[in-house]
Amino acid sequence: MSKKNVPYRVYLSEKELPESWYNIRADLPGLSPYLNPKTKEPVVPDDMKAIFPMALIEQEMSDERFIEIPEQVRELYRSFRPSPLCRAYNLEKLLDTPARIYYKYEGNNPSGSHKLNTAIPQAYYNYKAGIKRLATETGAGQWGTALSVATQLFGMECTVYMVKVSAMQKPYRKLIMETYGANVYASPSNQTQTGRSVLEKDPENMGSLGLAISEAVEDAATHEDTNYALGSVLNHVLLHQTIIGLEAKKQMEKIDEYPDMVIACCGGGSNFGGIAFPFLHDKIRLGKNIEILAVEPAACPTLTKGKFAFDYGDVAHLTPIIKMYTLGHNFMPPGIHAGGLRYHGDSALVSKAYHDGLIGARAVHQTDVFKAAVQFARSELILPAPESAHAIKVAIDEALKCKETGESKSILFCLSGHGNFDLTAYEEYLSGKLTDVEYPDEMLEKGYESLPTV
Amino acid sequence: MSKKNVPYRVYLSEKELPESWYNIRADLPGLSPYLNPKTKEPVVPDDMKAIFPMALIEQEMSDERFIEIPEQVRELYRSFRPSPLCRAYNLEKLLDTPARIYYKYEGNNPSGSHKLNTAIPQAYYNYKAGIKRLATETGAGQWGTALSVATQLFGMECTVYMVKVSAMQKPYRKLIMETYGANVYASPSNQTQTGRSVLEKDPENMGSLGLAISEAVEDAATHEDTNYALGSVLNHVLLHQTIIGLEAKKQMEKIDEYPDMVIACCGGGSNFGGIAFPFLHDKIRLGKNIEILAVEPAACPTLTKGKFAFDYGDVAHLTPIIKMYTLGHNFMPPGIHAGGLRYHGDSALVSKAYHDGLIGARAVHQTDVFKAAVQFARSELILPAPESAHAIKVAIDEALKCKETGESKSILFCLSGHGNFDLTAYEEYLSGKLTDVEYPDEMLEKGYESLPTV
Fold first, then answer.
1. 0.90 cut: is pTM over it?
2. Which of B9, B177, B247 to mutate to test the interface with A (most CBs of A within 10 A)?
3. Could you confirm whether domain B114-234 is CATH 3.40.50.1100?
4. Contact B413, B395 (CB under 8 A)
C-alpha cells in the first residue's frame, strides 16, 4: 500500500471540527487522586476554587468519556483549526524510506504552537465565571504567548511571569506577548511576596519555572478577580489538546489510512496526550494494534529514568501532589534548548498509560534532535521548534528502520510548533557548538531524594 | 448579501492549483522596452544572458497571456499551496462594518512571505540550465530566506548579500538563511570587487540595497556557474506571483463572491501584481467594475509622488533602464520598518497600469500602519509583517467608510507575510517611540535629479 494519491496536505472543513474533546480518564481505571499539598488528603473541588473556575475543576475530575466543546470555543477554534495533516513526501524521499510519514502541524497560529488549543477554552471558562484577569508563568514562551492571545479574545487581562533568564534570552517572545496585550514581568518580580523575598536575598536571581509558577499562583490566590492558568500537565489541559488527535483520526480516515505508530515529544505531556489519546482510545477499547511513543530529552528523562511516585508540581510545594513519573521536584535539568521539555514530572494521565504499558518512551540527545530538525526543515520547509524536533528524530529513526526491513509503516507524529523564535539554538548546532548533556546516576539520585513521603 | 455561510478559511484542493501563470503583458499594450544601461538601446535577450537563464529571459519578454507552470514547480508549490483565503470575521466584528473583508494569507511557508512563489521557479529554471549557484541581495530578509529554501530544494548553492545594517538589526533572518543552507555575507563584503573598494574607502560602511545588488550581480557575472536572482520588480517575478490572485479568484468563486476592491502593499510590486493582475485581467478584458489599490509608505511615495520616467534599478547603473514610476535611483528613503517597501522605483507593469488609470494608489504613515497591524493581530490572530500591514491599514479605512455609507462591499487584500521577525518594530510602536517620516518636496526634487536622460 503506497498511498501515492494522498495529497501533501489533508484538510477538514470547519464543519468537520470535532464537537467534543476525548477524556481518557474514562478509559484509564485506577488513577490515583491528587493530594492536597498541606493535608496530603485527596484533593476536593473546593481546594482548587481559589485559582480555577468550577467548570475546569469539573473537567479535571470528570470521568465522562466525551466532553462537549462549547460553541463559542469552536467558533474561535475555527480561525486556525482544523489544522492540516501533512504527508512528508519530501522527507520520505530524502530518507529513501518505504514508510509513510504524516505529521499534524500545530504551528499555524500566532502562539506558534498547540498551546492555543487549551488557552482558548481556559480563557473562555474563566470569562464565563466572571474572572477579569489570568496569571500564568512561561519558560520557553509558547504558553505565555497563547494565553496572551486567548485572554485578548475575551477582553480579559493577562499577567505573565516569565523566567528572567528566558526573558533575557528571548526578547522576541516577550515582545509578542506584549503585542497581544499582556503584562510580562521577568520573574523573580516585585509583583509578589514570593518574588520580593527572593530579590531581597539575591537581586541577581535569574529565576526558574518553579519560582515563576509560585509567583503566578500567589498572584491568582491573592486577587479576587484573578485566576491561574497552566499550559500542561493537568487533566483538563490534555483534554483540550485531544482536538489534535481527534482531527488527525478524521483526516487519516479520509485518505483511508491508520497509523502503525504515533509519536510526540513529551514535557508535561500536553501535545503528546493531545495527539496520542484518541488513538490510545482505539487501542484500549477497540484492540487496535498501534505503537505510541513519547519522546523526551536525555537531559530530562522523566519517563525513561524517573520514578512512578507522588510528587509536587513545583519547588515551593504550592501545587497538588500528583502520582506521576518524576525526577523529583528539586531536579534541575540543564539548559537544553527544548525549554518546553525541561519539567521534572509528567501528566498523571501520561504517567499512568506508561506505567500500564500502553505507551512507550524514548530519550534522545539534543545534537541528534537538531540534526533531524535541519533535515526536516530542508526537506519539508517548516522550521520545527526544538521540542517538536524530538518527535521528528524518532520518526526518522523509525522510517530508517523501515528502510532496512522493507516495511511500509504508517508513522504519524505531532509537529507541535515552529522554531522561528529558536534560531539561536539552530546557530549553535550549525556552528558545532551544541553539546549533549546526560545526567549521571548520582545526580538523578539527588533528585529522587526530594520525593515526599505520603 | 451578507455571505454569512462563508467559512473562516476557504481552501482549494491541490488538484485545483492553477496550471498556468497569468502574463499581464498580453493585456497592457504600449509598454516601453528596457534599455541597456550602457548603450541606452532596447535590451535584447543576449544582454541578460550573463546573469539569467534563457527561460526566464523569455518569460521577461513574452506576450503570451498564460504561461504553463512546469510540473516540477507545481509539485513543490503543493507543499505550501494553495494558500488559504480567509474571511476576517473577527476584524469585521471589531470594526462593526457591513463590509466583507477577505485576505489571502501568504505567510504559511518557511520564508514567511509570498517570496517563495517566485524563488522556486527561479531556482528551477536556473537548475535546468545547469547553474550550480544563485547570488542575490536581501534587505528585510524575506527574499533571501525564500531563495535559500528554493535553492536547497534543487541541491544548488545560494549566496546572499545582506545589507550590513539589516544583518545586524535582524540576526534571526541571517540565521534562518544559514539554517536553510545559504552563505550569507554582510554587504559591503570582501567577496566582490565592488564590496572591497567600498570597504577600502570606508571600513564602517553599513551598506544599502543598491550596493548589495551590485555585489550580487558582480558575483553572478564573474562566475560561469552562477546566476543572479531578483525578488521583485521584473516581469517574470510578477508573473510567478500571479498564482496568488489566480487562486484567490477560484476561492472566491467557490463561495459565490467577487471583490469590489483588491488591495495590496507595493514596494517593487510583486505581491501587489501577484494578487491584483488576475483581477485586472477581468477589468481590462471583461469590463469588471473593480477598484484596485496599491499601498505604499508615505516615506517612500513612488507611485503617489514619483515620476513616470526611465531610470536605473540600482545605484551603480548595472541594471537595465526601466520606464517606471520612480523617485530617482539616488533617492534614499528613511529607515522605516517596512524594509520591503523602501525601493525608489516600481515594476514596469505596475507603473504602466497606474499610468493608464487602471489602478489607484495610496500613501500611508507608519504609525497608522502599526495601529492597523495591532488591531489585526488582536482580532485575526496573525501578526502581520510591517509591509503587509500597509494593505491592512487601507482595508480597514475602506471598511470604516462602508460603515458610514452602509455599503456591504467585498474587500480583498493580500496578507503577504507574517511579522515574527519584526517584533522590535512592534515594540517601538507600542512604547510610543515610532515616528512618521515624510519627505519634504525639496528632498524629493533631489531624487528626481538623478533620473537619466535617455
1. yes
2. B9
3. yes
4. yes
